[in-house]
Amino acid sequence: MILGRLQSILRGDLPDFPEEPPGDGGRRIVLTASRAEMADFGMDPYIAFYNTFPHKLVRRAVEKYFQSRPNPDGTERFALYGLRKVEALLKEKYGDDVVVAHPDNLHRFIGPRTELVGISTMDPVGLAYVSTTYNSILGFGGISMNAVEFKALLNHPSIKRYRENFKILVGGAGVWQIRDSGWQKELGIDYLFRGEAEESLLEVVEKILKGEKLPPYIVGKPPDYNKTNIPVIKGGASYGMVEITRGCGRGCQFCTPTMRRRISLPLEHIMKEVEVNVRAGSEMIFIATEDAFLWNTHPNFVPNREALVKLYSTIASHPSVRYIQISHAAIAPVLADRKLLDELTPILLPKTRYTPDYKRTYKRPFVTVEVGIESGSPRIMKRYMRGKALPFSVEKWPEIVVEGYWRVQRSRLVASLHSDDRAPGGEGGGPDPNPESHRRPERVKSVFSASLFHPP
Ligand code: SF4
């Protein structure tokens, strides 16, 4: 048995999906994602990073999380947040003709009636920054788990059996990988959709269902938030995810989110999505934002402490919310308002997942957050991302990083620091020659993660 398992890991076996066709002819629109992207890893988002490592090395560690958690009708109880947004949008017009299903249950919904299979993906080809960095460093073990599972989804027996009947539309943050790698045709994908869904996706889907021919790469129009409604999700999102802001506005030159107009979702909208998630059975609310301190920010990125306290305390006081997980944060706001963490920590710390009860190796509770340092050089920061330091001058960036992290650490937040050294060093190119500014953050208790090998 051990030998068989070892052979299977080395071969990188693909899953055996069920094949029986649906008794009722299937649904018109079926939304899905790969098993790897659908999983929530026992509500620990950091384990999801394993999917970006070579599949032969990590399959054993992650595959146990890949099973479906279906509702009684076979639809999925928790799915990618983006997929849930698309579902909510399409259901307004197509109602029960739209379902979200896990690959393990696609055979129950893809059939002769199916006209469109929509797939959401963040890392379909394994070109996300963590995938490229660590696969390049390791150099063995094959392509990333995400890439293998995406390919397995497209080779699903139900997709193959009824392929002539429907179109495949792929959206999500990773569509650029398919376009730039030139693999769209090879993967059998009819349409790629990039951008926000609210303004254009419904029209695109209508045209596909009418049989109109569209360009293979479609860019969604930015929503006009004065007229366009952002729908409330209708089913549970992975990790209990809830969007609180969209866009950023700091204007870093390499960044996609900053190209979107910044909005803060109203508290009422946020709490409706919290409710949907807890009703689906989630104990965690994962705050989706580019910056946990950005919600209803004051001008020049001075954090709105009163609003943030109200937001987080309202979520925390929901009787069914056991954990709150924040994702990303900017570092400058913790210095722009020195009372910010003093007031937020007592709300967030009792709601952290990361306690000695969760893992014995954790000596005391802590809150985690991901922060982008990007570079320690004011010169590079000034040239490519001067807005990161606001409301302070970018010339002070190393001091902001060092002092900000000490403040974060004192508040029992553990930051995962991302440094991106791909930026050319100025006129002469090459990395910045200032090693001191890179060394300083090492004195802070954090996970420091350099991200290299970005595609151009
Ligand atoms: S601060 Fe972060 S989210 Fe905002 S523009 Fe810069 S990289 Fe993008």
Could you characterize the architecture of this molecule?
The chain has about 450 residues and is an alpha/beta fold. The chain folds into two domains: about 15-220, Rossmann fold (3-Layer(aba) Sandwich), CATH 3.40.50; about 240-450, Alpha-Beta Horseshoe (pyruvate-formate lyase- activating enzyme), CATH 3.80.30.20. About 30% of the residues lie in helices and about 15% in strands. The chain is built from 16 helices and 16 strands. It has a six-stranded parallel β-sheet with strand order 3-1-4-5-6-7, with helices on both faces. Strands 9-12-13 form a three-stranded parallel β-sheet, covered by helices on one side. The longest helix is centred in the first third of the chain and has 14 residues, at about 80-95. The two termini are about 45 Å apart. Residues about 1-10 and about 420-440 have low confidence and may be disordered.
Query: Which structural category fits the helices and strands?
Result: alpha/beta
Question: Going across the major beta sheet, what is the strand order?
Answer: 3-1-4-5-6-7
Count of extended strands = 16
Query: Which shape, going by the Cα principal axes?
Result: globular
* Radius of gyration, in angstroms, nearest whole number: 22 Å
Helix content: 25-40%
How many strands, what sense, and barrel or not for the largest sheet? 6 strands, parallel
CATH topology of the largest domain: pyruvate-formate lyase- activating enzyme
Q: How many domains in all? A: 2
| Ligand names | iron/sulfur cluster
% residues in beta strands? 5-15%
CATH superfamily of the largest domain: tm_1862 like domain
Gross CATH architecture of the largest domain = Alpha-Beta Horseshoe
Q: Report how far apart the termini are.
A: 44 Å
Low-confidence stretches: 1-11, 421-439
